[in-house]
Write a structure and sequence with these properties.
The protein is mainly α and 320 residues long. The chain has one domain (3-315). 75% of the residues lie in helices and 0% in strands. It contains 15 helices and no strands. It has helices at 3-26, 32-50, 58-81, 86-92, 96-107, 114-137, 141-163, 168-175, 180-190, 192-203, 209-236, 239-242, 248-261, 267-284, 305-315. α5 crosses α15 (305-315) and α6 (114-137) runs antiparallel to α14 (267-284). The two termini are 24 Å apart. The relative contact order is 0.21.
Length: 320
Amino acid sequence: MPSRHIALAVLVAAVWGVNFIAIDYSLDTFAPMFLVVVRFALIAIPTVLFVPRPAVPTRWLIGYGVGFGVLQFAFLYWGMSAGMPAGLASLVLQASAPFTVLLGATFLSERLSTRQVVGIVVAVTGLAVVGWQRAEHAAILPFLLTLAGAFGWAIGNVCNRQARTADPFRLMLWMTVVPPIPMLAVSLLVEGPAEIGESVRTAFTLDGLPADLGLLFTVVVATVLGSGVWTWLMSRYPASVVAPFSMLVPVVGMTTAWLMLDQSVRPVEIAGAVLVVSGVLFGSIRRSGRAQRVDRRGEPEDGGAEGSHGHDVERATADL
């Protein structure tokens, strides 16, 4: 992988880490459920008008949209609006990677390697440390909501995998068509027309400018451009080469939250973060030797669980 492509992978990870700050700003103006509606509608409308629908079964397209779009972001935005710091949110969402592996083993009968099991145990231990610290010093509900968002992401990953598309970027764009209508119903029921109206009114004032810029960053930079570059890199290199760069997301997210939002992280939470990142990395990077061989298409020869997990990590980091 040449240095310029390494720089692109690092840049995308940095953009996704900063995106949690953009989300935090957006939630200052927009009600969380309504923010999900706006975020996906801004992509879904031009997608329906200008992008051909990918040739995938409808059930997997809907499942991808429900898991990745509805469940992940409804719980993430709810958790952050309830007090989950942006930096820690970027870390806890990494639980989507071990969740994806576990769902694949449970429902798709995929074999787990010893390396993956160890990685999952280490990552879950790190999450438990972070959760324990949150319970000791702050409300535990935002942490649990963010963890639920990571599980929703994993559901979307499995549906994405089952869609078996040859054009993952087009599938990602069409996934955005699923969340707006159900999330609008949820927003009307939970937040009500008055709160939605206040979000819209404030968005068109000077006070709402930071939220608008945050939303624009999320839609254009993090989702369309970031996902586009990441998908292009994944089409050129094995997943095991590209996917580990996603572990820079919580590093950037937590550092940026500290610098821009003055969100401090306790030493024990940093230790938990190190365990989470180490566990996901350990479980996603294949060993050297026979397991590292790739065929002419850049895919693992054996197509086993470890090779597929690399794709899972890639799917579990797209479109923050």
